[in-house]
Design goal:
Layout (H helix, E strand, L loop, with lengths): L5 H13 L2 E15 L5 E7 L6 E8 H4 L15 E8 L2 E3 L14 H10 L13 H4 L6 E4 L18 E7 L8 E15 L5 E3 L5
Antiparallel strand pairs: 1-8, 2-7, 3-6, 3-8, 4-5, 4-7, 8-9
Length: 205
Amino acid sequence: MIEVQPSLNMNIYKTLESKPATYAIRKTEIKSTFLTAGRTEIEYNAFSASIPRRITVALVGNKAFNGDFSLSPFNFLPYDLRDISVHTGGHIYPMVAYKLKFKEDLFVRAYVDMYEALGMANSDRSFDISMEKFKSGWTFFVIPLTSTLDDSCGFELLRSGTTSIRLEFNTPIPTGGVEMIVLGEFDQMLMIDYNRHIVSDSNLG
């Protein structure tokens, strides 16, 4: 247990009387949507209030997602995806289309982008996803939406708008359909006032 000196404690109280304590945190939100079989193009409005700083997208078979014990819900396959893009604030991310062909091993850029977006490129850190794993059950598309297009420690200003995800496939979605899982990460300010009331910038006003 940490005990604060009485003098310091009084200074904290006086400061809180004039302004709240402010903490920058990162909030996550997960969405999912069903992609029906036979389609080759899908657009999904994932977030309609705040614009996230980063989006991670993964695809898994619908039966596995809904609890089929014979299938793994963590088998995230590419399903012959050709392109993935995020549309928000009048911008498209990434700016250059992917043109993926997983069956021909044409996916290196998406693999490298995943590491760069997570801040692990050109470093000694890794999450142990090889290129072979990336195309065979560990397929994650990580798309940064920050002003610097990387996972910087800086705080992004709160932006409002609709964020949609567009998918294009080389071949139709297989029978049974696919579930798309979307993880959005948002910068958020948490404020604690003198009366210990907690308020975040997402529920102000």
